[in-house]
Write a structure and sequence with these properties.
By secondary structure, this protein is α+β, with helices and mostly antiparallel strands. 37% of the residues lie in helices and 19% in strands.
Length: 271
């Protein structure tokens, strides 16, 4: 590794192999909703966000980060920057595809908390509680990789913090116990589980940095169309994201990051 490479953030130092590169697996030739976002898609979203931030009276420095990063003056590394988020997600998805390659797995989405005030919601305290729940459910030997996300629910005017978790090496009974530990939640359905059948597509949604919401109720397996947030909520979300780094939005259990790689534990009886 060269000196210049060492100065880069870990997610900018490594490009995934072709077999695990989401830009290859969901290529630009696909329709917008089917492909992984292109650099041009991210730039267009950055410009749109800048317009909404201006309309919403956001602090000037947030607007300047987007404009100057998009212009190539520097890499801002902000979670609300679509271009930087695209680079981070490309690294993250590539690593998750690599470590999960060929393994049976489940994806579980857990609704953690809600509030009309976005600043009441913070992923940090949930790291410890999630690990405790995984331990108590008998998942101490499992590998769990995920990402926190916050979304606006216009119907009840609440922000909702949730986490998407990929669980490797777990029994059905242990996963059921983990899901059951959220039974006392104030959400009617606090967890949603699905087998990992289409890794490129499903893992693309494991960690997102979206400024959209879905105002209509989901009917059946189909999600309602995503719509841009109003300026007020858009500014609130960007300000919330500005307080957190990309690493703050990750959840790792039974796996660790070493430099620009996710490292799985050795098989039982080894290491």
């Amino acid at each position: 590794m060269t000196k210049s490479e060492k100065t880069l953030s870990y997610w900018r130092r490594h490009k995934p192999s072709k077999a695990h590169d989401i830009t290859v697996l969901r290529p630009p030739t696909l329709p917008v909703r089917k492909r992984f976002e292109t650099a041009e898609d991210a730039a267009a979203e950055s410009a749109r966000s800048e317009v909404v931030l201006k309309a919403g009276g956001a602090p000037r420095y947030l607007i300047e980060y987007l404009a100057e990063c998009r212009a190539g003056d520097y890499v801002c590394e902000k979670t609300f920057c679509p271009s930087c988020a695209r680079r981070f997600r490309r690294w993250f998805i590539g690593e998750v595809l690599r470590v999960s390659d060929g393994q049976a797995a489940q994806i579980i989405t857990v609704l953690l908390a809600r509030s009309p005030n976005i600043n009441d919601l913070d992923p940090a305290p949930f790291r410890h509680s999630l690990r405790k729940r995984l331990d108590r459910a008998g998942l101490a030997e499992a590998v769990v990789i995920g990402g926190f996300e916050i979304v606006w629910r216009a119907a009840d005017k609440n922000w909702v913090l949730h986490v998407n978790l990929l669980i490797l090496g777990a029994s059905r009974s242990a996963i059921a116990r983990f899901e059951g530990s959220f039974g006392s939640s104030y959400f009617a359905r606090p967890t949603k589980k699905a087998p990992l059948n289409d890794p490129p597509v499903q893992l693309s949604y494991l960690l997102k940095f979206s400024t959209y919401h879905r105002p209509l109720q989901q009917i059946g397996p189909r999600r309602s169309p995503a719509k841009p947030l109003n300026a007020k909520e858009h500014v609130a979300l960007v300000r919330w994201m500005d307080q957190r780094s990309f690493s703050d939005m990750l959840f790792l259990y039974g796996v660790r990051r070493r430099g620009d790689r996710l490292i799985l534990p050795p098989p039982r009886g080894q290491g």
